[in-house]
Amino acid sequence: MAAVTWQFGGTKSDDVSSNTKAQWAASFAVAAPTALKLVPSGEVDGAVKQMKLPPAQEQELKEEVSAGRARMVWLSFRDVMAEDGDTVSIESMANGVIYRQSVVATNKEQRVFLPEPDAGRVNIRGVRDGGGGITIEITSGGAPLNLPFMTVGQVVSVQTFTSP
Questions:
Q1: Tell me, what's the pLDDT at 40?
Q2: Dihedral sign, CA of 127, 124, 74, 83?
Q3: Where would I find the beta strands (DSSP E) of 7-96?
Q4: Cα separations (Å) of 15 from 53, 79, 83, 92, 149?
Q5: Of 3, 10, 142, 143, which shows the fewest CB atoms inside 10 Å?
Q6: Would you give the distance in Å from CA 74 to the centre of its chain?
Q7: Do the beta carbons of residue 102 and residue 87 sit within 8 Å?
Q8: What was the pLDDT predicted at 1?
Q9: CA-based angle 1:157:43, to the nearest 5?
Q10: Rounded to a whole number, what is the distance in angstroms from the first to the last CA of the chain?
């Protein structure tokens, strides 16, 4: 069973047992693809704006969606242990363009919007470990999924499919 511990100065840190790490890795290895939910058409502009892309890339993505060559989807992230500043980068490729976004995970789900990935895969890279490992859960249209216990620089590839 995982536990949360406190470090010096009152900051939180993850304390994940070897057993829990092994369970997360095993569950992830056999997990069904993660369902990505479509962003409703009336919310696409706001979703693209939240991606904080350079203006030219933002405009290009909006045009791709408008022309039906791309669809916007979302994925939620949550730190399942201590809210300690764990940060990940979400990377997906759509129409040959790589889109990257970073999220500092909190204990409250945070939606990240992205164009539907070409290959049905989203890569999640560990950027910052707030202490004790990067402990992330993802969800969108289906059941929550704990990613394997992550370290800085580690990349986890999540198989996905799009669900209306």
A1: 95
A2: negative
A3: 12-15, 34-38, 72-79, 87-94
A4: 35, 13, 12, 30, 11
A5: 10
A6: 9
A7: yes
A8: 35
A9: 100
A10: 36
Q: Nearest CA to 139 among 80, 76, 89, 91? A: 76
Structure tokens at 116: 């539907």
Six token digits for residue 87: 């940060």
Tokens of residue 59, six digits: 């405009």
Helix, strand or coil, per DSSP, at residue 3: strand
Choose among 160, 137, 158, 155: nearest CA to 24: 137
Per domain, the residue ranges of the chain are 33-163
SS (H, E, C) 128-155: ECCCCCECEEEECCCCCEECCCECCCCE
Structure tokens at 119: 């290959």
Amino acid at 58: E
The CA-based angle 107-31-25, given to 5 degrees, is: 65
pLDDT of the chain, 164 residues: tens digit per residue = 333 333 333 457 777 788 888 988 898 999 999 999 999 999 999 999 999 999 999 999 999 999 999 999 999 999 999 899 999 999 999 999 999 999 999 999 999 999 999 999 999 999 999 988 999 999 987 789 999 999 999 999 999 999 87
